[in-house]
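Hi everyone, sorry if this is the wrong subforum. Our group has a chain we'd like a structural model of before ordering constructs, and none of us has done structure prediction before. Sequence below.
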Amino acid sequence: MTASKLEPKLFACTQSMELAKNIAKEYHIPLGNVITTHFSDGEFQPAFEESVRGRRIFIIGSTMPPANNLMEMLLMLDAAKRASARHITAVMPYFGWARQDRKDKPRVAIGAKMVAKLLEAAGATRIMTMDLHADQIQGFFEKPVDHLFASTIFLPYIESLHLDNLTIASPDMGGSKRAYAYSKHLLSDVAICYKQRKKANVIGHMELIGDVEGKNVILVDDMIDTGGTLTHAANLMMERGAKSVRAICTHPILSGGAYEKIENSALTELIVTDTIPLKKNISKIKVVSCAPLFADVMHKVQDNTSISGQFLM
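Answer:
Right subforum, don't worry. Here is the predicted structure as tokens:
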């Protein structure tokens, strides 16, 4: 059997173990075996317990903080490179540090660019991720990037709700392009929230652009962190006469008091993917798995076939 026809191997970073198991199940191959040695000072060393020589391998791991998650991905990429893997794809359902995509004030790092260079230096020959915080991050890489859209998962779910008087909304101006893309597919109206921040994660003022009275509103965003923006927007829309407000967010970071804010907000439900494992389950949060999408695209990458059919937006 030639190297190009060898079955690929899938490996998981510890923070994405459950998602990786689901992807492997959808792909119909077992996860590869990785043993991680931990030292008393916190240092760790992952090791592949099987040969990867000449193989295409996929290393699955979201790189949200803490930094150990990114470090584990880098160590596994380097180990695969030194073990003579033929192609090494870093599968990062959530690409961490992506909010640092530009210099928005003097004397700050462009963290997303730095992470891109680290991944390539460690040995990644391809990157696979979903709903980057900023599309231009793809340009930080010199290697191919498969940038998937969660709309492939969310749009069928929205359509299954059979909501009348549907309006798609963005919780901030930065997400207006995403909201318009969803509305074009769903033939719905659009509303946009304009916010001013006092500082990171703290909203100073928010205004609503558009009519939501009597509408079933769905807020769309790429991530939810503290939940402040989303819950503020939901409450504002209900005050302006919305019939119901739901939210779809690809990456459930959910830090600080996010769970409590969501539970106490006007949101009917929050729909997220499993790019980041939930810290706890609450009644208002519904998880839609991205495992089938990643497994299908990984199949296509292995078979060198087009993935353009996966892009609904």
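For your construct planning: The first strand starts at residue 9 and ends at 12. The CA atoms of residues 148 and 308 lie 10 Å apart.
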